[in-house]
Amino acid sequence: MSTDPVTHTPAAMKALASPLRREILSHLANHGPATSTTLAKAMGQNTGTTSYHLRLLADTGFVTELRERAKGRERWWDVVKADRRLPAREEMTDAVRDLAERLGDSRLAEDLRMLSAFVRDRDEESDWQQGSRAGTFMTKERLKEFHEEYLKLVHRFGADRDNAPEGARMILLRWMGFPDPRGS
Protein backbone atom coordinates (compact mmCIF):
# COMPACT_ATOMS: atom_id res chain seq x y z
CA MET A 1 0.00 0.00 0.00
CA SER A 2 1.15 3.49 -0.77
CA THR A 3 2.34 5.23 2.40
CA ASP A 4 1.49 8.71 1.15
CA PRO A 5 -2.15 9.69 1.54
CA VAL A 6 -4.12 9.98 -1.69
CA THR A 7 -6.70 12.76 -1.75
CA HIS A 8 -9.98 11.84 -3.42
CA THR A 9 -10.82 13.75 -6.56
CA PRO A 10 -14.45 14.65 -7.27
CA ALA A 11 -14.50 11.81 -9.83
CA ALA A 12 -13.29 9.36 -7.16
CA MET A 13 -15.98 10.55 -4.74
CA LYS A 14 -18.62 10.08 -7.43
CA ALA A 15 -17.30 6.57 -8.07
CA LEU A 16 -17.59 5.74 -4.37
CA ALA A 17 -21.13 7.12 -4.22
CA SER A 18 -22.40 3.88 -5.76
CA PRO A 19 -23.13 1.19 -3.15
CA LEU A 20 -22.47 -1.47 -5.81
CA ARG A 21 -19.01 -0.06 -6.52
CA ARG A 22 -18.24 -0.04 -2.79
CA GLU A 23 -19.46 -3.65 -2.64
CA ILE A 24 -17.12 -4.55 -5.51
CA LEU A 25 -14.19 -2.93 -3.70
CA SER A 26 -15.08 -4.74 -0.48
CA HIS A 27 -15.33 -8.07 -2.30
CA LEU A 28 -11.93 -7.59 -3.95
CA ALA A 29 -10.34 -6.51 -0.64
CA ASN A 30 -11.77 -9.56 1.14
CA HIS A 31 -11.50 -12.26 -1.52
CA GLY A 32 -8.79 -11.15 -3.90
CA PRO A 33 -8.71 -10.74 -7.66
CA ALA A 34 -11.86 -11.46 -9.62
CA THR A 35 -13.39 -11.17 -13.06
CA SER A 36 -16.58 -9.33 -13.89
CA THR A 37 -18.24 -12.76 -14.20
CA THR A 38 -17.23 -13.94 -10.72
CA LEU A 39 -18.21 -10.56 -9.23
CA ALA A 40 -21.57 -10.65 -11.04
CA LYS A 41 -22.27 -14.10 -9.63
CA ALA A 42 -21.26 -13.07 -6.09
CA MET A 43 -23.41 -9.92 -6.19
CA GLY A 44 -26.43 -11.09 -8.12
CA GLN A 45 -25.69 -8.75 -11.04
CA ASN A 46 -25.08 -9.29 -14.74
CA THR A 47 -21.57 -9.16 -16.16
CA GLY A 48 -22.31 -6.04 -18.20
CA THR A 49 -23.10 -4.17 -14.99
CA THR A 50 -20.01 -5.35 -13.15
CA SER A 51 -17.79 -4.70 -16.20
CA TYR A 52 -19.07 -1.12 -16.41
CA HIS A 53 -18.44 -0.49 -12.72
CA LEU A 54 -14.99 -2.10 -12.83
CA ARG A 55 -13.96 0.18 -15.72
CA LEU A 56 -15.17 3.23 -13.80
CA LEU A 57 -13.28 2.09 -10.69
CA ALA A 58 -10.17 1.59 -12.82
CA ASP A 59 -10.51 5.06 -14.35
CA THR A 60 -10.56 6.56 -10.85
CA GLY A 61 -7.63 4.49 -9.54
CA PHE A 62 -9.50 2.14 -7.20
CA VAL A 63 -8.88 -1.09 -9.11
CA THR A 64 -6.29 -2.29 -11.56
CA GLU A 65 -6.43 -4.87 -14.29
CA LEU A 66 -4.12 -7.86 -13.76
CA ARG A 67 -3.06 -8.34 -17.36
CA GLU A 68 -0.80 -11.28 -16.48
CA ARG A 69 -3.88 -13.29 -15.44
CA ALA A 70 -5.92 -12.52 -18.56
CA LYS A 71 -7.04 -15.45 -20.71
CA GLY A 72 -8.69 -14.51 -23.97
CA ARG A 73 -11.41 -11.98 -23.22
CA GLU A 74 -11.34 -12.73 -19.50
CA ARG A 75 -10.07 -9.73 -17.50
CA TRP A 76 -8.94 -10.00 -13.89
CA TRP A 77 -9.17 -7.07 -11.47
CA ASP A 78 -7.84 -6.30 -8.01
CA VAL A 79 -8.15 -3.43 -5.58
CA VAL A 80 -5.40 -0.79 -5.49
CA LYS A 81 -4.24 -0.44 -1.90
CA ALA A 82 -3.82 3.17 -0.75
CA ASP A 83 -4.40 5.52 2.17
CA ARG A 84 -7.33 7.43 0.65
CA ARG A 85 -8.72 10.59 2.20
CA LEU A 86 -11.24 13.29 1.46
CA PRO A 87 -9.82 16.72 0.65
CA ALA A 88 -9.57 19.18 3.54
CA ARG A 89 -12.94 20.87 3.98
CA GLU A 90 -11.45 24.33 3.45
CA GLU A 91 -10.11 23.20 0.06
CA MET A 92 -13.50 21.96 -1.17
CA THR A 93 -15.77 23.93 -3.44
CA ASP A 94 -19.47 23.99 -2.55
CA ALA A 95 -20.14 21.29 -5.17
CA VAL A 96 -17.35 19.05 -3.86
CA ARG A 97 -18.49 19.61 -0.26
CA ASP A 98 -22.02 18.55 -1.26
CA LEU A 99 -20.63 15.46 -2.99
CA ALA A 100 -18.52 14.60 0.09
CA GLU A 101 -21.56 14.98 2.35
CA ARG A 102 -23.70 12.72 0.16
CA LEU A 103 -20.89 10.15 0.08
CA GLY A 104 -20.58 10.37 3.87
CA ASP A 105 -24.33 9.90 4.31
CA SER A 106 -24.30 6.86 2.03
CA ARG A 107 -21.31 5.31 3.81
CA LEU A 108 -22.85 5.96 7.23
CA ALA A 109 -26.12 4.28 6.21
CA GLU A 110 -24.13 1.28 4.95
CA ASP A 111 -22.09 1.15 8.18
CA LEU A 112 -25.24 1.29 10.30
CA ARG A 113 -26.79 -1.59 8.33
CA MET A 114 -23.65 -3.72 8.84
CA LEU A 115 -23.41 -2.83 12.53
CA SER A 116 -27.09 -3.58 13.07
CA ALA A 117 -26.68 -6.99 11.40
CA PHE A 118 -23.66 -7.72 13.58
CA VAL A 119 -25.43 -6.70 16.78
CA ARG A 120 -28.35 -9.01 15.95
CA ASP A 121 -25.92 -11.94 15.54
CA ARG A 122 -23.34 -10.95 18.17
CA ASP A 123 -23.84 -13.98 20.41
CA GLU A 124 -22.21 -16.14 17.73
CA GLU A 125 -19.34 -13.69 17.18
CA SER A 126 -19.07 -11.85 20.52
CA ASP A 127 -15.34 -12.40 21.00
CA TRP A 128 -14.70 -10.66 17.64
CA GLN A 129 -16.39 -7.46 18.81
CA GLN A 130 -14.38 -4.75 20.53
CA GLY A 131 -15.34 -1.15 21.08
CA SER A 132 -15.67 1.77 23.39
CA ARG A 133 -17.31 5.15 23.74
CA ALA A 134 -15.31 8.02 25.08
CA GLY A 135 -15.37 11.76 25.37
CA THR A 136 -12.46 14.07 26.04
CA PHE A 137 -11.39 17.65 25.43
CA MET A 138 -8.96 18.33 22.58
CA THR A 139 -7.91 21.20 20.41
CA LYS A 140 -8.39 20.89 16.66
CA GLU A 141 -4.63 20.33 16.28
CA ARG A 142 -4.61 17.55 18.89
CA LEU A 143 -7.61 15.91 17.20
CA LYS A 144 -5.72 15.88 13.88
CA GLU A 145 -2.66 14.43 15.63
CA PHE A 146 -4.85 11.79 17.29
CA HIS A 147 -6.30 10.86 13.90
CA GLU A 148 -2.83 10.36 12.39
CA GLU A 149 -1.83 8.19 15.36
CA TYR A 150 -5.01 6.14 14.94
CA LEU A 151 -4.11 5.51 11.30
CA LYS A 152 -0.62 4.40 12.38
CA LEU A 153 -2.21 1.93 14.80
CA VAL A 154 -4.44 0.53 12.06
CA HIS A 155 -1.37 -0.04 9.87
CA ARG A 156 0.64 -1.46 12.79
CA PHE A 157 -1.94 -4.00 13.94
CA GLY A 158 -3.72 -4.69 10.65
CA ALA A 159 -2.71 -6.43 7.45
CA ASP A 160 -3.98 -6.41 3.92
CA ARG A 161 -5.51 -9.52 2.40
CA ASP A 162 -2.22 -10.76 0.93
CA ASN A 163 -0.31 -10.48 4.23
CA ALA A 164 -3.00 -11.48 6.73
CA PRO A 165 -2.10 -14.26 9.16
CA GLU A 166 -4.08 -17.49 9.15
CA GLY A 167 -7.42 -17.09 10.89
CA ALA A 168 -7.57 -13.34 10.29
CA ARG A 169 -10.86 -11.80 9.22
CA MET A 170 -11.65 -8.46 7.66
CA ILE A 171 -12.36 -6.21 10.62
CA LEU A 172 -14.35 -3.06 9.96
CA LEU A 173 -13.05 -0.14 11.99
CA ARG A 174 -14.92 3.13 12.16
CA TRP A 175 -13.40 6.01 14.08
CA MET A 176 -14.66 9.53 14.05
CA GLY A 177 -14.11 12.48 16.29
CA PHE A 178 -16.33 15.54 16.34
CA PRO A 179 -17.40 18.25 18.78
CA ASP A 180 -20.41 17.43 20.94
CA PRO A 181 -23.25 19.37 19.29
CA ARG A 182 -24.89 19.73 22.71
CA GLY A 183 -21.95 21.68 24.10
CA SER A 184 -20.09 24.83 23.18
UniProtKB/TrEMBL annotation:
This is Winged helix-turn-helix domain-containing protein. It comes from Nonomuraea maheshkhaliensis. InterPro entries: ArsR-like_HTH (IPR011991), HTH_ArsR_DNA-bd_dom (IPR001845), HTH_MetalResp_TranReg (IPR051081), WH-like_DNA-bd_sf (IPR036388), WH_DNA-bd_sf (IPR036390). Residues 1-96 form the HTH arsR-type domain. Keywords: DNA-binding, Transcription, Transcription regulation. It comes from the Bacteria. Pfam families: HTH_20. The lineage of its organism: Bacteria, Bacillati, Actinomycetota, Actinomycetes, Streptosporangiales.
